[in-house]
Specification:
about 500 residues, alpha/beta, seven-stranded mixed β-sheet, elongated
Amino acid sequence: MILAESPRRQRVTKLVNWGHWFALANIVIAIVIASIFVFSSPMPGTGVGTLYLLANWFGHIGFMTFFGFVIFILPLCYLVNNPSIIKASASVIAASGLALLAFDALLFNRTGFHISFYAADLLRNEAQNKMDIGSWQQWAFLLLLFVVWFSFQLVLANAIWKRIDKLTKHRVGVPVTTFFVTCFVTSHAVHVWADARLYQPIIKQDNMFPLSYPATAKTTMSRYGLLDLAAYEERKQLQFNPDIHSITYPAEPVYCSIDNSKNLTVVVQVDDSPLPDLSKINGVTLNTMANYYATASTLQGLITATLFGVPEIYQEALSQKRPVLLALPLGSGMPVSVHSDIELPFKQLAGYLQPLTNNHDGLHIAFLKGSDIQEYATNTLKRNHDIIIASGSTDTSGKGKLYSTLDISTKLASTEDLAPTILNALGCSAPATFYSTGQNLLSPTRAWLVTTSGERIVVLNENKRTDVLSNGSYEISDIQTGKRSKDTLNVDLLSQAIKHLTRFSKQT
């Protein structure tokens, strides 16, 4: 006895087969659209990071698209008898979903945010800025784009429907499914490993794709006793993202008066050549502080830290900003000059650049080699200027000395402290926290300091130096000897220091 399939069962089977091929076509389209997320983000820079990126890209986007098919389209194949209605409905759903993905990708490319309730204000402002010009023409154009996209989906749906018998002969279901499932599982497994090690090339990709919630070591490995939760939470608390691309500088508007009758010259050494004793120049005795640290890893980073009062990890994000240290005195009518033979890190600083022979009153900031400092300082003191000399580092720790006619009263100082000290000396009483991570050395409020060296955060406190890497690992050493210390890590202080250091950055 031969039992033939009923016409309805045959129709449902054909519709389900069609639906799978339609979903596969849209997965490919979604992966192409999602490339915007990939190319809008910094590359991982490591082999493992790149492997995770590819696996997460194909696995997550494939899963998200197929999940949409299972939720919205597959039930129609069983509930609706008319194939035309199913194809039209599926085209509307696919066009809407891909349009939303494309809009999210463009938003991410522009702002670093995904569509969410948290980004609602940003979306509203963006929409107002874009729609103020053309009113109904703009909306008509967007509607036309959607109609074109829907028409493409409808053509795709019909083309697959006409060729479904030929397509089903190609046994691609198992290899395609295996590929996407392997990518999905691999991405989550690799992320668990990366989360346990706080491996930044992978961890920093967490926000790359929409609706992405990768498995973590805390929720996976700790269940089986494979993770020390105490050590994990400690490192988690200390990790930070060194790739800062967006910044709020200054954090608050800076309003204060500048005493235009004051004259101040600041000299920053840009090499490691040894200096003579500068505690007494031209008969003037200078206050000397032995624990000054210039830890910037490049000369441009040193200039950035001096002029902006923030560490070099902000350098890229400051490319369109003007330093408060220069803009505020100049806006108050005080002549301001920067002297440097080294290329300044930003174009907007070029307007302040003056020859070293320019001896006007007001504020001078000079970046000089060690061999030129004593002569320049002598001429400065002859003109009755107050002076601050920040000597360059003479060892790998970045330790130098600070000399000044000002009453500096602190045991530790870093390059970031110069900007608030200079402004305070010129009469500005605005809080240093508005525009700097440093502090006013004439009236210090902290016994510790935090700065950076390359992508490392450096915290100095009570004769101890703690270097923290972006993944939360750390090393403690003795300031005087440079040898590794076995002292207990002060997690609370480090956490406070990292939050203080990164508070200008906009988290996305």
